[in-house]
Amino acid sequence: MMWIIWTSLAFLIGLLLFVAAFFFFQRQTRLEILRRSTPQGGFVEVDDLKIHYMVQGNGPDLILVHGLGANLICWRHLMPLLSQNFTVWALDLPGFGKSSKPRTRVYGLEQQSENLRKFMDVNGIKKPLLVGNSMGAAICGEVAIRHPQRTSGLVLLNSAHDSKIVGPWDVRKIRTLRPLVSPLVGRQIVKGVLKSLYGTKQELPREIIDAYLEPFVKDEGASFAFIEAFEAIVENEHLIEGLSKFKGPVMVLWGRRDRLTPLKFGEDLARRLGLKNFYVHPEAGHHMQEEVPEWITQHILEFVRAPAVLGN
User: Fold this and answer.
1) pTM of the entire structure?
2) Which of 3, 75, 125, 196 is the most buried (most CB within 10 A)?
3) Residue 280 — φ and ψ, nearest 5°?
């Protein structure tokens, strides 16, 4: 009689465990589908800095790094496309977007590259593909130079890697502009600047303009970080030399209609690095990620299928 009771009890416990496991895995599957289809976001703390980020997708890690004065909103078209094949991370660099902007911090390329590396450490990102636009491309390059073992490759979009890009600016004169940045920045100014970054006509809804404008309106630290970062580009002299020693795969994408970093700088970068992976879109401008995200996605997918990238 007792064995019947024990057998029934064991069967009941087993059934309950099976049902619990079934619902647990169903929930995990739903969460994974949600993560794949919908960007999830939040803040992480790095050296007392709150860094805002979004993550979407499932697969090898890929990090998107924005340029000067921008924030992660610039990846809104590219991120969902890449998320079909990657776990895509986009962050607001310290000093930009919704991330911390203390005036006591340094916002140069080297410091931002360390901020990016520490962001990777906090999130358990081991060896991602780094994709950067403009200043963000230079920061990705700094990570590759300083920590080559921490990236599987670089994709540089209209890279601001050369001090000649911004002309012969006197850093002391640039610093005098700090108090003027926030008061001068308004919706029409931002709209005009954004239009100058595109090679093709783009729709600019009010909410997108406001997403670029808001950091400068809400926090005076944004103008401080902007000038500091601009100074870093002006003073940058070593990036190409450092990248020439990087053994990992590199791809450079450029917009022929880029008025901020003209095509000649992309051609020079590709020549000096001896790159085969250099592609030019005939109509795109500086913010090509907002104009031709499908074209960029296609090239990235072809790039990562190459043996040199897969081997990493």
Assistant:
1) 0.85
2) 75
3) -120, 130
For 302, the enclosing helix (H) or strand (E) is helix 293-304
Task: Give the strand order in the sheet containing 40-46.
Answer: 40-46, 49-57, 87-91, 61-65, 129-133, 153-157, 250-255, 278-281
Q: Are strands 40-46 and 49-57 parallel, antiparallel or unpaired?
A: antiparallel
Tens-digit pLDDT profile for residues 5-16: 555 555 556 555
Residue 88 and residue 62 in contact, taking contact as beta carbons nearer than 8 Å: yes
Least confident span in 34-48, 187-201, 247-261, 271-285: 34-48
Q: What is the phi/psi pair of residue 88, to 5°?
A: -100, 125
CA distance linking residue 145 with residue 138, whole number of Å:
10
Locus of tokens 């795969």: 249
Q: Which helix (H) or strand (E) holds 255?
A: strand 250-255
pLDDT tens track for 211-240: 999 998 888 889 889 888 887 776 666 888
- DSSP 8-state assignment for residue 98: T
